[in-house]
Specification:
By secondary structure, the chain is α+β, with helices and mostly antiparallel strands. The chain is 20% helix and 33% strand. It contains four helices and nine strands; from the N terminus they run E-E-E-H-E-E-E-E-E-H-H-E-H.
């Protein structure tokens, strides 16, 4: 599964996290998640300024097949959302690790990152689900 970027962290619920180096993280869903959902037709973005605990449902992606919650990988405050997804949710299908990012969180705790998975551990999660 060489399509799992090694510079990101992952959750077992298929979110990816990029540390932006300034106390914020960018969050999206993995290639596996977007592929399982199929063609995305709607994204319900979280509100800027809203606080979430780790593992709180904070956004929704909807495809022709199903709707799926997106969970906050870490505790924090939403500081930015990807408004381009309002008119082009399919960007997540085309570029899940780039232009298809969903939101940014300002982290409110620094030990929560320990529960995140590296690329190898995430690949094992996918193998266990197969």
């Amino acid at each position: 599964m060489s399509d799992i970027p090694t510079d990101l962290k992952y959750t077992d619920s298929h979110e990816w996290i990029r540390d932006d180096g300034d106390g914020t993280v960018t969050v999206g869903i993995t290639d596996h998640a977007q592929d399982a959902l199929g063609d995305l037709v709607f994204v319900e973005l979280p509100e800027v300024g809203k606080q979430f605990a780790a593992k709180d449902a904070c956004a929704v992606v909807e495809s022709v097949k199903a709707a799926s919650d997106i969970y906050a990988p870490l505790a924090g405050e939403v500081v930015e959302v990807n408004r381009a997804l309002d008119s082009a949710p399919e960007t997540i299908n085309a570029d899940p690790y780039g232009e298809g990012w969903i939101f940014q969180l300002k982290r409110s705790g620094d030990d929560a990152a320990q529960v995140l998975l590296d690329a190898d551990a995430y690949e094992r999660v996918l193998e266990d689900e197969a």
